[in-house]
Write a structure and sequence with these properties.
466 residues; alpha+beta; six-stranded antiparallel beta sheet; five-stranded antiparallel beta sheet; 19 strands; 38% helix
Length: 466
């Protein structure tokens, strides 16, 4: 924060007197840059920052970013002061405030700049009768509003506390020192803030990957005995003539181990159907095991890649690289639009759900693209789930599993603990002639057997975009 002696020195170095205001560029709610012209100094810029911890002003040669939207007060200033000549600059006695007296089209008006801490900080435009025309911050409690009379409270004696101008290199002006000091201070604070944001993002992302790895490991463990299921099916096949419908179990010789084994059966099924059930379970367990192994491999690769990425990111002093990373994330979040059904953001991927035939049809017509992935429950009516893919990125199997959980949740099989699903690219769907609204026939589909994970389902449903 500037003190009054520093304000005095800064003003003495800036040729405001008889300068013309040519432009104003807003950076954010608290800051803007004035472009001015003086016959001696020629063109120059002055940066103003008001009502922040680092409130200051100074000559600057830096081009600061321009705000995408212009605040009401900035619009007012742009219409009022461009083309005006500063005919007088007066600092309030022993104060961090100063006034511009301006002339434009034979009309005189004033601007008061107050570089205070707290609610006194402001920029106020007023006329010769001290009537406030507009101001950066409206302060009703201080009676500082458009149309109010400005009360000028100025010191009549110096403050008791002694103030000093900060020590700065003799080879540069105080304006250059202040511009460099606050720019670097803000840059370092931004880097630290962005790094803190990066750490949070890293913990969220790596935590999700580690949970995926744990789930894959548990799936591998639970399905590792798929060969045992096949062995049971082979034994049952060898002795199928001894099995009768209505039996809940049968004890047979395990010729591979030379011992008896009791095999549970479904009494309502005939022997052939019981056998097919065991072979089908074997195929499901084998496929689930293979998919879990593949998911584990991909998630471990992803973990290593993202750990390396964040390690390099956090070691970088390049604020542009840090900022661009999170600007990309913000843009992706801001780009989330209204789809024709509920949407979920899952590790950066958007999952869209159709809850009925109408939504299914609208999602396929308006929201889905050819390379997006379509997921649906077999043998049950219900919602489609579309996974919006990212260019150049392979969709992790964990995202497909999450989409499968959503597909089951939004189907007639919602209360089932397991289900068969299938998925394919949207470009491999075709509409049957004269079919019902939203009905499609998949081709080149892949099968997926899903056992519902309750915690996973809760987590996914919590990702819904409002």
């Amino acid at each position: 924060m500037l003190n009054y002696k520093e304000v005095e020195l800064l003003l003495s170095e800036i040729p405001f007197q008889d300068s013309y205001i040519q432009d104003i560029r807003e950076s954010d709610y608290h800051s803007f840059t004035l472009s001015l012209f003086n016959k001696d100094k020629k063109a120059y810029d002055v940066y103003f920052e008001i009502a922040t911890e680092d409130a200051h002003f100074s000559l600057t040669k830096r081009t600061r970013r321009k705000s995408s939207t212009m605040q009401r007060f900035t619009q007012f200033l742009k219409s009022r002061i461009i083309g005006a000549r500063i005919i007088e600059v007066r600092q309030a006695p022993w104060d961090r405030a100063f006034h511009f007296k301006l002339l434009k089209e034979e009309r005189i008006f004033f601007i008061l700049f107050r570089f205070y801490s707290g609610p006194g900080a402001n920029i106020i435009v007023y006329d010769e009768n001290l009537i406030i025309e507009d101001l950066m911050f409206r302060r009703p409690k201080r009676n500082e509003m458009s149309g109010s009379t400005l009360v000028l409270e100025e010191r009549t004696s110096p403050p008791e506390k002694e103030f000093f101008v900060r020590v700065h290199p003799e080879e540069i002006t105080f304006n250059e020192f202040i511009d460099d000091y606050y720019y670097e201070k803000g840059r370092n604070e931004n880097i630290e803030a962005l790094k803190a944001e990066a750490v949070k993002a890293r913990e969220r992302e790596l935590g999700e990957i580690r949970r995926n790895i744990k789930r894959a490991e548990e799936k591998i463990k639970s399905t590792k005995d798929f060969e045992g299921t096949k062995r049971i099916a082979d034994i049952l096949s060898s002795y199928l003539h001894m099995v009768r419908k209505g039996m809940s179990e049968v004890t047979l010789l395990d010729y591979m181990r030379d011992e008896n084994i009791t095999i549970p059966l479904k009494a309502e099924l005939n022997p052939r159907d019981n056998l097919e059930r065991y072979y089908k379970n074997y195929q499901k367990e084998k496929k689930s095991h293979e998919l879990a192994l593949e998911e584990l491999r991909k998630e471990n690769e992803r973990l290593n890649e993202r750990q390396s990425y964040y390690q390099k990111l956090l070691a970088s002093p390049d604020i542009k690289k840090l900022k661009s990373t999170f600007d990309d994330n913000r843009k992706r979040e801001e780009s989330i639009r209204r789809y024709h059904g509920p949407s979920f953001i899952d590790s950066g991927y958007t999952l869209i759900v159709g809850r009925n035939s109408r939504e299914n049809d609208e999602i396929l017509r308006h929201d889905a693209r050819g390379n997006d992935i379509w997921v649906h429950v077999r043998d049950y009516s219900g919602g489609y789930v579309i996974i919006k893919t990212m260019k150049g990125k392979e969709v992790p199997f964990s995202i497909i599993l999450d989409a499968a959980h959503l597909a089951l949740h939004y189907s007639k099989a919602k209360d089932e603990k397991s289900a068969d699903l299938y998925y394919t690219y949207v470009k491999y769907l075709r509409r049957a002639k004269d079919a019902k609204q939203g009905l499609v026939l998949p081709t080149q589909e892949k099968n997926l057997f899903l056992k519902v994970e309750e915690e996973r389902m809760k987590r996914i449903l919590g990702l819904k975009v409002d």
